[in-house]
């Protein structure tokens, strides 16, 4: 099918994009890489009056390294994130998770910022961003503001972004030397995560010194498995210790029920996948 | 909106509605019907083309987003009347049954071989994850891609 008609704007700066969004009103839609929006437009599940394409704004593209963080432009593609040596070195969990997103063609177009702003609870980059304590820089009519990931994800497909705001970049604190793994459970190739778990570990002398664990699709927003993180500290890497620590992986989460899995099954998956993710991360 | 793009080596300038999909522009305005539409969900990969050298699903890109871009379709692969080595390998290995997924399979295979010149069977299957063959003719597709890898490797 073909999308319903819309006006199209392709601003060349962030400030211009904010102005265009303000003028276009509440039925405007921001177009990032388009890999979530285009199917929705084609099936006419959405019919915005104006589509504001961020693809012609150079500032939004690319990864820069600062002393203590990587700063990833919102329009940086998944493929660029996967290939970046700096991401592999300083945010390995993000590299691992990004590699599991959709398929190669979609990773060539889809963007990191677009995925976060879309905020699909089954999206694979939300939990890693949360687990790595990322923060989002947002531009609006009043200027720029920074929102930590924990406050950025508000609800099902809902973020802290107002209608006239644009996600500019994401600051990911460096986790240099941390070992990571993203364990994704889905039914078939290309399918969204039924549940997935991202684990990043700082190892010291064969034991876990620090752990960060994020859960995908265990709630309307990504979930930080704080109970697991605390339970892993100081633990040796044995199957029993990890299984024990992963037991309360779903603590505080409120998983939904859908055609793929019910809440009880998701809770069990969170446990099993957390143990697998931590085990794999410890072995990398 | 007026847009200009280079498709298979030729520059085209056209007026399109913003909602026009790249695949629709290629097929209906430029006559590049070698690129086909297989689904409405971005799953099947039949419409895969190269946009500035990387594979994309042309049903999931607006024509206006490709303004200024260089596009290669299945129709732009042959050189001097000779099929591309990947096309030749698909032919020789009977890597098609009904043939509908073939343009997308070939375009994605070329992208894959650009990144991974000598892929294992598993790497081929992963690289073609975004392309569906409803005849389930995957065995010979994988075989063809690995044969093409050998052929391209020998030429280097």
Q: Which terms would index this structure?
A:
heterodimer, A: 284 residues, alpha+beta, Uridine Diphospho-n-acetylenolpyruvylglucosamine Reductase, domain 2, Uridine Diphospho-n-acetylenolpyruvylglucosamine Reductase, domain 3, Enolase-like, domain 1, 3 domains, 5-stranded antiparallel beta sheet, 4-stranded antiparallel beta sheet, 12 helices, 14 strands, 26% strand, B: 156 residues, Ubiquitin-like (UB roll), DNA polymerase, domain 1, 5-stranded mixed beta sheet, 35% helix, 15% strand
Can you give a write-up of this model?
Chain A has 284 residues and is α+β, with helices and mostly antiparallel strands. Chain A contains twelve helices and 14 strands. Chain A has three domains: 50 residues, Uridine Diphospho-n-acetylenolpyruvylglucosamine Reductase, domain 2, CATH 3.30.43; 116 residues, Uridine Diphospho-n-acetylenolpyruvylglucosamine Reductase, domain 3 (2-Layer Sandwich); 105 residues, Enolase-like, domain 1, CATH 3.30.390. Helices cover 34% and strands 26% of the residues of chain A. The longest helix of chain A has 21 residues. Chain B is of the alpha+beta class and 156 residues long. Chain B folds into two domains: 75 residues, Ubiquitin-like (UB roll); 71 residues, DNA polymerase, domain 1. Chain B has five helices and five strands. Chain B is globular. The model of chain B has no long low-confidence stretch (mean pLDDT 96). Chains A and B meet through helix 2 and helix 6 of A and strand 4 and helix 3 of B.
């Amino acid at each position: 099918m073909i999308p319903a008609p819309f006006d199209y704007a392709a601003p060349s700066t962030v400030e211009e994009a904010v102005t265009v969004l303000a003028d276009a009103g509440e039925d405007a839609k921001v177009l990032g890489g388009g890999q979530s929006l285009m199917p929705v437009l084609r099936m006419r599940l959405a019919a915005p009056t104006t589509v504001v394409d961020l693809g012609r704004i150079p500032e939004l593209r690319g990864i820069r390294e600062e002393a203590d963080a990587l700063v990833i432009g919102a329009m940086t593609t998944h493929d660029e994130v996967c290939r970046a040596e700096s991401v592999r070195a300083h945010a390995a969990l993000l590299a691992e998770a990004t590699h599991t997103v959709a398929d190669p063609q979609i990773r060539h177009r889809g963007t990191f910022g677009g995925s976060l702003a879309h905020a699909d609870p089954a999206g694979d980059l939300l939990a890693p961003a949360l687990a790595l304590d990322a923060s989002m820089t947002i531009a609006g009519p009043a200027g720029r503001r920074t929102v930590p990931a924990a406050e950025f994800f508000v609800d099902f497909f809902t973020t802290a972004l107002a209608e006239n705001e644009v996600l500019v970049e994401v600051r990911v604190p460096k986790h240099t030397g941390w070992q990571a793994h993203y364990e994704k459970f889905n039914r078939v190739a290309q399918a969204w995560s039924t549940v997935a778990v991202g684990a990043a570990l700082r190892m010291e002398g064969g034991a876990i010194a620090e752990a960060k664990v994020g859960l995908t699709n265990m709630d309307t927003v990504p979930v930080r498995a704080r109970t697991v993180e605390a339970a892993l500290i100081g633990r040796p890497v044995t199957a029993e210790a990890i299984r024990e620590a992963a037991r309360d992986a779903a603590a505080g989460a409120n998983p939904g029920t859908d055609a793929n899995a019910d809440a009880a099954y998701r809770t069990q998956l969170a446990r099993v996948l957390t143990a697998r993710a931590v085990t794999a991360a410890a072995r990398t | 909106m007026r847009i200009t793009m280079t498709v298979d080596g030729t520059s085209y300038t056209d007026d399109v509605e913003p909602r026009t999909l790249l695949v629709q522009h290629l097929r209906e305005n430029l006559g590049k019907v070698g690129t086909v539409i297989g689904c409405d969900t971005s799953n099947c990969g039949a419409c895969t083309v190269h946009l500035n050298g990387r594979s994309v699903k042309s049903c999931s890109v607006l024509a206006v987003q490709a303004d200024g871009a260089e596009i290669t379709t299945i129709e732009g692969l042959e050189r001097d009347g000779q099929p591309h080595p990947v096309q030749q390998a698909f032919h020789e290995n009977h890597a098609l049954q009904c043939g509908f997924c073939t343009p997308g399979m070939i375009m994605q295979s070329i992208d894959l071989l650009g990144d991974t010149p000598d892929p294992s069977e598993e790497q081929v299957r992963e690289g073609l994850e975004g392309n569906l063959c409803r005849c389930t003719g995957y065995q010979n597709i994988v075989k063809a891609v690995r044969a093409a890898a050998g052929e391209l490797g020998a030429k280097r």
